[in-house]
Design goal:
isomerase, alpha+beta, membrane
Length: about 300
Amino acid sequence: MKRLLKSLEKFSFYLIVLICFSFVGCEWLKFKQDPELPSATEKPIARIYNKFLYPKDLEGVIDKNMSYQDSTKRANNYIKNWFKKQLIIAKAENELSLDQTEIERKILDYRYAIIAHEFKKEYVNNHLDTTITADEITRYYESEMDNFILKQNIFKGAFVKLPLKTPKMGRFRKLFRSQKPEDKEELRSYCVQFALNFSLEEDQWLNFDEVIVNTPLMTIPNIVQFLRYNKNYESRDESGIYFLKINSYKISDEVSPVEFVTDQIRNIILHKRKVELINKLEDDIYTKADESNEIEIFD
């Protein structure tokens, strides 16, 4: 095996030249349903036991726009993996009692599964209605509310981390507590210029446990009590000063707000539509074939 692998570099240039001449004017990436036997004049590029690898077997492996170095690397990796697969197959054939008929059946089933999967995926991409209204999301949320229990603490508010030495800290504290639109704009400009980290989208639910990671807030003994009694909080460590504003909150084991699970619900609805679309496709194809007398069961 080592001798074979060491010979990979010798094949590289020859391999690339052969592939270039073999596939000029052809598609570089295509799939064949049935492998073709090599011609009597085609020279192999690798061998292991009585198995040979031919230039046509590398079709689609190397892109015509790749550099010589990248082509060589990819070709070598492909040949090395081919060696490994052939060795595993040979080992299995020597040590296992294999039912060749069963193996062929599984290969055929696998091929059909791939073809069917690609067809269904293309059909879904072309026919799936991806428009989901706010009413649909609300209806699903209300009907499945018990499935949206929070597993973390969340809050609406703002979070800012500033360097220990930051100018105009008094002005920043005033802006941070203000609800005036013009002050919010000034606060954002300040944070863009000076903050090490910040989140100012006060209308969005944030994961509290993620926000306080690597901050002094991680040492809080009772998070629920902290959320309940703190609207504005300031702390510091050797890396910076932390400012937290809490406008509203929900704790774990409570029902999640619909806004916090909107994306999750949208994905669930889309998945249900995909399943229904595929089931209908299969039923329609079967019904059409049955009505056309293309299906027949013999006694």
